[in-house]
Specification:
single chain, Rossmann fold, seven-stranded parallel beta sheet, two-stranded antiparallel ribbon, globular
Length: 257
């Protein structure tokens, strides 16, 4: 687990879980938001980090359902090599205040950034339940240079899956044997209130089947990663997420002026 030292005393810092998809359309950002809510409800403090560059979805969800101990951070990331320093900075500046960095990112970014060696502890790949979807998850794990199960740090979640079919979920992918952590229902767009809210009214909350699927996923991650409360430091999240690298440089320039 990542840690830093202050006066020779170790300070435990947040674990990092990335939610990723190879192609858009699996509802990964929406799932990441509701997964973050599950983790908070389980007693964890979460910094939800949007690295997709598509800011509207998570900002809309956060505005609709703000929650204590859940903060959204959308830092710019110009190059994949920025990921490691970004996570190091976030851990340093939230040490003792945040338990989980939950990163919403495209799989391509994580692959180019060598994410499992850049500070990401676990990657949840969201994909279809088909053979092609399983193969895509296996390829992502290979490009991340993940170890083979049971030593690996990549798991699979199936999207757009009907609840009756979920009873027949495989335990692992066919070829590489990645663990299947769960699923969420086919009508995931309901979770963002896109299609079921009257015009001009508040967005609707997701149905119980969706919420229960995300609850099971969150609890699986807590056991598997594992995730737990950081015991040192403040008891609540900071009022504002940590500054970006560019903002830090601007602040230093203003102090020197």
């Amino acid at each position: 687990m990542a840690s830093m030292s202050i006066s020779n005393e170790p300070v435990e810092t947040a674990r990092c879980v990335a939610v990723a998809q190879e192609h858009r359309g699996h509802g990964a950002s929406t799932a990441a938001y509701y997964l973050a809510r599950v983790l908070v409800s389980e007693g964890l403090r979460v910094l939800l980090v949007d690295l997709t560059g598509r800011r509207q979805r998570l900002h809309t969800l956060i505005a609709h359902g703000p929650m204590k101990n859940l903060v959204l951070w959308s830092p710019p990331i110009a190059r994949p090599t920025d990921l490691g320093p970004l996570l190091t900075q976030a851990r340093r500046e939230t040490a003792g205040k945040v338990d989980v960095l939950l990163v919403d990112a495209d799989a391509a970014l994580l692959e180019r950034a060598d994410a499992l060696n850049a500070g990401v502890d676990y990657v949840v790949v969201v994909t279809e339940s088909s053979e092609g979807g399983q193969a895509a998850a296996d390829r992502i794990a290979e490009r991340l240079r993940d170890e083979l199960p049971p030593l690996g740090h990549v798991g699979v979640v199936f999207s757009r899956m009907d609840a009756p079919l979920a009873e027949d979920l495989p335990e692992k992918t066919d070829r590489r044997g990645l663990p299947v952590l769960g699923y969420y229902p086919a009508d995931y767009l309901l979770a963002a209130g896109d299609d079921y809210s009257l015009k001009g009214s508040e967005p609707s909350w997701p149905h119980d089947t969706y919420l229960y699927a995300l609850l099971r996923l969150g609890r699986s991650l807590i056991r598997l990663v594992p995730l737990h409360r950081v015991t040192l430091g403040m008891s609540h999240l900071p009022d504002h997420p940590p500054p970006t690298l560019d903002e830090r440089h601007d602040d230093e320039a203003r102090r020197m002026a």
